[in-house]
TrEMBL record:
Domain EAL: 24-274
Record organism: Bradyrhizobium rifense
Residues of the full protein shown: 487 to 774 of 778
Alphabetic keyword roster: Membrane, Transmembrane, Transmembrane helix
Protein name (record): EAL domain-containing protein
Superkingdom per UniProt: Bacteria
GO molecular function term, any single one: catalytic activity
Length: 288
């Protein structure tokens, strides 16, 4: 059909492409305005210490309240912002906002901030981080930077130096989405990192058919290498029980504890959890 109707098909694709290019152009224009118009917002999702049941850290997750499109996912924002070179300005805003917010939380609670590869590899990343700590007054040990494996695969010597300097500063580095890439943990361990977040894909089906072996193996290896272990994407009590059973996983994160919520809500959650265990029905209902 495509052959018989070659010209028409070509026109169709050309229109499609033009429409995609146009949509992308509009998205870029909107993104540029969004920062100035204060359309970005940070949601926060708790990481829960599985031994104490208390919130140890809250991860900042970007949301865009688009005037027409409604809430836009970070998955659609970050890659475009990277292409446009907007990620540095956007990332600076995210980091400072997250540090300032953390200052309103109980002292034992840290904030985790996601860094995209480009943001992590900007020339003055160290001074950006130092400055964010300085203007917010947040002690370095309450900041955790989440990077993915792709940030570790370029400029490896430079990356190593940056991580060492961050470590010296007291900032924690957390390896996000571990297990979705192709690197082995023994390679990644060459970099100074304090935490590993095991991707939620490792949880899929473990409460029904998939064996726990893989998750347990990765968790144990990370712990043996001296890193704290987080499992992300815990949605059910069954999963929580399986993950907690052998004591190697130190923290959990997922809808079971709470979905990502606005700043005001996380403050209420932190106040409520002060002195109380998380992981029960109350929290699940707060988060929905
Ligand atoms: P991530 O850093 O791995 O964050 C976890 C994502 O999984 C979040 O999606 C969160 O809402 C979702 N999640 C948490 N618990 C569960 C669960 O139990 N079940 C399921 N199905 N999902 C769960 P979100 O907020 O849409 O963010 C997606 C990704 O976008 C993040 O993955 C991160 O890579 C990126 N991102 C988000 N905010 C930022 C940011 O401020 N800067 C950068 N550079 N990237 C960001
Ligand atoms: Mg993350
Ligand atoms: Mg993650
Ligand atoms: Mg993830």
């Amino acid at each position: 059909r495509a052959k018989a109707d070659g010209r028409g098909t070509f026109c169709f694709f050309r229109d499609e492409m033009a429409a995609t290019v146009e949509a992308r152009r509009i998205l870029e224009l909107d993104l540029r305005k969004a920062l100035a118009n204060e359309e970005f917002e940070l949601f926060y999702q708790p990481l829960v210490n599985l031994k104490s049941g208390k919130i140890s850290t809250c991860e900042a997750l970007l949301r865009w309240n688009h005037p027409v499109r409604g809430t836009v996912s970070p998955v659609d924002i970050i890659p475009v912002a990277e292409d446009m070179g907007l990620i540095v300005d956007l990332g600076r805003w995210i980091l400072r906002r997250a540090c300032m917010e953390c200052m309103k939380w109980p002292e034992g609670v840290s904030v985790a901030v996601n860094f995209s590869p480009q943001q992590f590899h900007q020339r003055d990343v160290l001074s950006e981080i130092r400055y964010a700590l300085e203007v917010s007054g947040l002690p370095a040990h309450r900041l955790e930077i989440e990077i993915t494996e792709s940030s570790l695969l370029r400029n490896t010597q430079l990356t190593h130096d940056i991580l060492s300097q961050l470590h010296a500063l007291g900032v924690r580095i957390s390896l996000d989405d571990f297990g979705t890439g192709y690197s082995s943990l023994s390679y990644l361990h060459n970099f100074p990192m304090q935490k590993v977040k095991i991707d939620r894909s490792f949880l899929e089906g473990i409460d029904t058919d998939r064996p726990l072996t893989l998750l347990r193996g990765v968790a144990r290896l990370s712990a043996d290498l001296g890193m704290a272990v987080v499992v992300e994407g815990i949605e059910t009590n069954e999963q929580l029980e399986l993950v907690s059973a052998d004591g190697t996983v130190s923290e959990g994160q997922g809808y079971l504890f709470s979905r990502p919520v606005p700043a005001v809500r996380i403050r209420q959650l932190l106040d409520a959890s002060h002195g109380r265990r998380l992981g029960d029905a109350q929290i699940v209902s707060i988060s929905s």
